[in-house]
Give the backbone structure.
Amino acid sequence: MTTTVHLSVQTDDFDPALEQARLSDNAAVGGVVTFTGLVRDNNLDDHVSGLYLEHYPGMTESALQTIIDEASERWSLYAVSVIHRVGQLHPTDRIVFVGTASAHRQDAFAACDFIMDYLKTRAPFWKKETTPEGDRWIEERQSDKDAAQRWQG
Amino acid sequence: MMKVLFFASYREQLNCNELMLSADEQPATLSELRKQLSEKGDDWREVMEDGRTLVAVNQAMTRRDAELKDGDEVAFFPPVTGG
C-alpha cells in the first residue's frame, strides 16, 4: 500500500482541521486518528511560562521519515501526517501533530500511538522551559522510554 | 575536514556548537574521537563519558563504535525530549 506522507518541522502554527481533511481525502479511508500535543503551563510542580524547542536540522526530517516508514511497514496506512513545531512557544500553543488514516480504526490508533512514542525517544528535538527559577532543559522521562520499548520484540 | 556538532544542554555546557577537525586531527573511529574530545577538559570528559549521550554519524543514530572518514558529520547530544 502506498502511504501518502505529510511531514513538516516548522516554527509556524498548524491547523488540525486542515490536517484532518488532508488525511480524509481518500474514499478507501475508514478511520482517521489524530493527536495534538499542547504546551502545558506547569511541569514538575513549577509554573512554566515558555518552552523553547531546539532541533537538529536535516537529521530531524530524516529521523521522522524513518519512524513513519517503520509505522507504514507495521500497519496498513493510507496517509500519515506529522508536524512538529520548533522555536519559542507558550502555554496553550500547539506543539506537535500526528495523524494516521487507514481502512479500519485499529491500524490508525496503533500507528498514531507508535509514531508519538518513537518521536519522543528517537527524533532529535529538545525542550527548554522557562520557570520562575530560570530556564532549564527538560530531562528524558523513563515513562517515555518504557512506552517506546513496548513496541519492540 | 570532519564536522562535530553539539546540541541542547551539551552545546551550552561546552560553549560550543560546532568543531571542524582538519585532516591531521581526524580520528579513525568514534571511540577515538570521544577520547580525543575528552582530553579538552573536565566538561568535555563529562559529556563524552555520560552513558546517556547519543551520537549520530551523518545524521543517523549509532550505538556502536563507528569508523569515521573525511567529510563525516558527527553529532553528540543528550536524550531527546520532543513531542
